[in-house]
Design a protein that fits this description.
The chain is α+β, with helices and mostly antiparallel strands. Helix content is 54%, strand content 16%. The strands form 5 sheets. It has a 6-stranded mixed β-barrel with strand order 2-3-8-5-7-6. The longest helix is centred in the N-terminal third of the chain and has 53 residues, at 284-336.
Length: 985
């Protein structure tokens, strides 16, 4: 049997190669799930940990324990307690089996004082803390003086080190011998000498994660062993408190280790609590959140593979079916010669098993290579030179590969079962019989799939709308798997509907023009029209699925990335938004404050609040604006004044408060208030004001023009031509205002002034129509002319919006700001925020998975296309001979094949692009639930990008070109003389 198998595989080596390719692609795709997931999550963890350390100045991998000692313990009891505490900490930490970057033991005596320093009668001497720290000399440097020597000197003095802050706190000096004793028992004492100021040897060393000055303000340090083995026996020094900290190397953590930390944290805390020991992991919240996000990313990657896995199953089924169709005659011959069904099935099963074993070994390595490439993805089919992802093979990857092999092993055997039931006589008879309708045509599977998917889409959109009405905007935790299944089912349903009606259309076209068709055209139409259940329909369905999914994946990735970028660009408004500290009549008072606000525009808001409270007018000195235009990389700069809490009033308005969140609880007053106009007035007190210079503003903004009914420059021209005008948010139209109405504006200590309504808009750069006021209601907005507002009110600090050149460096701009000595109170960069957004593991995971899926689908499309036409040409040698014997020229045979290519492949590809576009319009907007939709501006939109379609067209062109070349070569190698003789016979 094995010899027969080898002979069979050699005779069908191209088919075997295609099956092996499909197996490896399937296995690699499945293997990427654990590999890419672990790598993405590890990169996410490292970024979160680094952000935690920058914010809190605490090493995020710390595993901290501490123990307070009871007073009046003997020296032996202190030593024994320390040994028990140390053993407990090491045992508990060891159970987690985590990668270690180091550890540190510290013992402290907080009840010492310096006998050498005299105090006045009746005063209590200042406390001195003496500490013993393990490995202190190996992790420290002397910023002044020298490093201490461990142990006691010949003169009985112990050398110590301290921080400069500690020396000042304790009134100590370098190179001076001090006698220290216990505050409560000063009979015994020891002598110490501070020989150097301690400093951190390596800024990145977690050993000093808690800082030196912050943690040890009044401490003087010696070595841990010196304090325990030589100072403690003198009984002048005791242990008040001890700590034993471990430093986890979080860059090497993986998911199982994180699960171990999260699952063991509470139990370990209980153990430490029973032993009167403190225990904390500072980054515990990050680790808990990380576990939640990891489950979301795992689910997302799994769901993104659903269409690809279904496509691979379909591909393998198609290849296997084509292979069986070619070998049906051989199978029938085997049966006629006495071979049993099990023996024949065993040959094909053994073939799939051999391929499966090779795949199970090669698949994970192929997946590893794909993950290395995808780690550099910055978008869909976009790659950047960034630090490589920490990808590595795990046992889980091989398990996923084995599971994939098992599924696809079964898939390849399914087409063999019907063939085993056919005898050689039945096989010959089946060629002459008219084909019956397939089962899916009888049950209307195409209508069920397409209609069911559309019905689910309608239901899902209604559910999402209800959630938003209830104020639930974050739906990322409830990713619905059906959105991936439904989109694929919709494509499959439309594809099946196409191949149901296509033969009828071809027969209709053939009948309508049979008088005009050339022989080659007539034969092509006749072949396609008669293949009601033939391979042509199978190829069309395959091409529809692959190309449609390619279009769908491209549009999905582009929409997600575009939405992420547009959200940042809309929120910022410009490339750089900068606020500068202004000098004013209250400069001295301002300088006494703790510091300027980091909030954009915070300086102007704080000043205005103070003006209102004191009822005084603050005079500001405007900085030189031209400095900003001379900064590095700046193309344009504009003044933009922003103010929240502006009052807009009109007698024509009836303002009804729009609550950002739906009220779930009512108060007693809600039932007693019978006023029909309750909650309404002619005044809106929570308006966001933006005053712009129309000409300059148009040059700096980043804005999607589709958000407005006409170009934004038309609105800006109106503001420029009529300075007292105002552009209001659309909510004011609901309040009763109309174009041309006059409103009164007021804020702070300024006098009210009038403005005329020029337009109503839903969106404006930098203004969020869903921004919430302090009372939970939505804030409306108003846009006015900067110069007009400046004349009507007192000058207040404004923001500077900057447009950078395309090739400008953001860091270079930051450096030029610092060089120009501009006192910045707040600055945001759209480019930097977009980079941070694209580094989000969820978005990166989607980009990587969609890119991988697209590449895999296109590879399958090319291979499947070639397989079909190779088999088609090889199986039609007799037909070519008959046609040649009937007088058809060789050129006409080539034309016939070209016409068939157009009628089968061309129509299928054209239909697939159309189906992919429809599916994208319907289903891609659902993917916004994968991201946080709390930022609903701008609205999620599917806008096809020409570059994505060009990539797709390039793949299709390469596929068709390769197909023509292969077909031409195959036809050229056919012995026409033999075929002609066969046809004549």
């Amino acid at each position: 049997m094995f010899t027969l198998l080898l002979r069979k595989m050699r005779n069908t080596k191209w088919m075997v190669f295609c099956l092996l390719t499909g197996f490896i692609m399937a296995s690699a795709m499945m293997s990427t799930i654990p590999i890419y997931m672990n790598a993405s999550l590890q990169r996410m963890l490292v970024k979160d940990m680094e952000a935690f350390q920058e914010e809190y100045m605490i090493y995020p991998g710390s595993y901290n324990t501490s123990h307070s000692f009871k007073s009046k313990l003997s020296t032996d009891e202190q030593v024994r307690t320390m040994e028990e505490y140390t053993a407990l900490a090491e045992k508990q930490f060891g159970e987690l089996d985590l990668p270690v970057a180091g550890s540190k033991k510290v013992v402290l005596d907080n009840d010492l004082y310096c006998k050498s320093i005299s105090v006045e009668a009746g005063e209590t001497p200042a406390r001195l803390t003496l500490g013993g720290m393990s490995d202190i000399c190996e992790h420290s440097a002397a910023s002044s003086g020298r490093m201490m020597t461990k142990g006691v000197r010949d003169d009985g003095v112990f050398e110590c080190m301290a921080t400069e802050k500690s020396l000042k706190t304790n009134g100590l000096a370098l190179d001076t011998v001090y006698e220290i004793a216990n505050l409560f028992d000063n009979e015994k004492s020891v002598k110490i000498e501070i020989v150097g100021l301690i400093d951190v040897a390596d800024e990145n060393d977690p050993f000093w994660a808690e800082g030196i000055d912050e943690a040890y303000t009044a401490a003087v340090f010696t070595d841990y062993d010196t304090m325990m083995n030589e100072m403690l026996p003198t009984k002048a020094v005791n242990i008040s408190k001890a700590s034993y900290n471990f430093f986890i190397d979080y860059t090497k953590l993986d998911i199982p280790e994180l699960k171990a930390i999260n699952s063991s944290y509470n139990s370990q805390k209980e153990v430490f609590k029973k032993n009167d020991t403190g225990f904390i992991i500072p980054a515990k919240d990050i680790l808990t959140d990380y576990a939640k996000r990891s489950s979301q990313l795992t689910l997302l990657l799994w769901l993104l593979q659903i269409p690809v896995i279904l496509m691979i199953i379909f591909y393998l089924f198609m290849v296997s079916k084509l292979n069986i169709e070619q070998e049906k005659n051989e199978i029938a011959v085997f049966k006629s010669r006495g071979a049993g069904n099990r023996q024949i099935l065993g040959i094909y099963a053994l073939e799939s098993l051999v391929l499966g074993i090779l795949t199970a070994i090669a698949g994970p390595f192929a997946g590893l290579g794909l993950c290395r490439i995808l780690g550099a993805s910055n978008g869909f089919l976009e790659f950047v030179n960034r630090r490589a992802m920490p990808v590595r093979l795990t046992a889980e990857a091989f398990l996923y590969a084995a599971a994939a092999v098992l599924v696809f092993f079964i898939t390849t055997l399914v087409p063999i079962v019907p063939a085993l039931r056919t005898t050689i006589v039945e096989h010959k008879q089946s060629k002459a019989k008219k084909k019956k309708l397939a089962l899916w045509e009888k049950v209307g599977l195409d209508v069920i799939l397409a209609g069911g998917s559309f019905a689910w889409l309608y239901y899902y959109k209604r559910t999402q709308a209800k959630l938003l009405d209830l104020g639930i905007t974050d739906t990322t935790a409830t990713v619905n798997p059906m959105m991936f299944v439904a989109s694929t089912a919709f494509i499959l349903g439309l594809g099946l509907f196409l191949i149901r009606i296509y033969p009828m259309l071809i027969r209709l076209i053939s009948s309508a023009g049979k008088r005009f068709w050339s022989p080659a055209q007539y034969v092509s139409l006749n072949n396609i029209g008669r293949s009601a259940t033939g391979r042509e329909r199978f190829l069309m369905l395959f091409l529809v699925l692959t190309v449609s999914l390619g279009v769908f994946f491209a549009n999905t990735a582009r929409a997600l990335n575009r939405n992420a970028e547009e959200t940042v660009e809309y929120a910022n408004g410009a490339d750089i938004v900068l606020a500068e500290e202004w000098y004013s009549s209250k400069t001295e008072a301002a300088q006494k404050r703790s510091g300027p606000s980091a909030n954009m525009g915070g300086g102007m808001q704080q000043a205005a609040e103070e003006d209102t409270d004191t009822a005084t007018v603050v005079t500001y000195t405007e900085p030189v604006f031209e400095r900003f235009e001379k900064l590095e990389g700046v193309q344009h700069a504009a003044k933009v004044f922003r103010r929240d809490g502006v009052t807009v009033k009109s007698s024509k308005m009836t303002v009804v408060k729009r609550s950002a969140e739906k009220k779930t609880e009512k108060k007693r007053e809600d039932f007693l208030n019978q006023d029909m106009n309750a909650g309404s007035s002619n005044t809106d007190r929570n308006v966001q004001l933006m005053a712009v210079q129309p000409a300059g503003f148009s040059e700096v903004i980043n804005f999607e023009q589709r958000l407005l009914p006409t170009h934004i420059n038309n609105y800006l021209e109106a503001l420029a031509e009529y300075a007292p005008g105002v552009i209001l948010s659309s909510a004011f139209k609901d309040y009763g205002l109309e174009l041309g109405d006059t409103v009164e504006c007021e804020w702070g200590a300024n006098e009210p002034f009038d403005a005329t309504v020029l337009a109503f808009v839903d969106y404006w750069p930098g203004l969020d129509p869903y921004a919430e006021a302090g009372d939970g209601s939505y804030m409306d907005f108003a846009v006015m002319n900067f110069d007009y507002v400046n004349v009507q009110t007192n000058m207040e600090p404004y923001q500077v919006w900057i447009d950078l050149a395309d090739d400008a460096s953001v860091q270079g701009f930051y450096d030029s700001v610092e060089k120009a000595k501009i006192e910045v109170t707040g600055m945001t960069s759209a480019k930097q925020e977009i980079i941070a957004k694209k580094n989000d593991p969820m978005l990166q995971g989607m980009n990587g998975a969609l890119t991988l899926g697209f590449i895999t689908i296109m590879i399958m499309c090319i291979i499947g296309f070639l397989i079909y036409w190779i088999l088609s040409i090889k199986s039609r040698t007799l037909q070519f001979g008959i046609l040649r014997a009937m007088g058809m020229k060789y050129r006409e045979i080539i034309s016939m094949i070209v016409y068939e290519q157009i009628l089968v492949s061309g129509v299928a590809i054209f239909a697939a692009i159309f189906i992919g576009g429809i599916t994208s319009e319907l289903f891609v907007p659902l993917f916004q639930s994968v991201l946080d939709v709390s930022s609903r501006v701008p609205e999620f939109a599917v806008i096809p990008v020409r570059e994505d379609y060009l990539r797709l067209y390039t793949v299709i062109a390469v596929m068709l070109l390769a197909g023509f070349l292969v077909l031409g070569r195959l036809i050229g190698r056919i012995n026409i003389s033999k075929a002609l003789k066969l046809g004549e016979d």
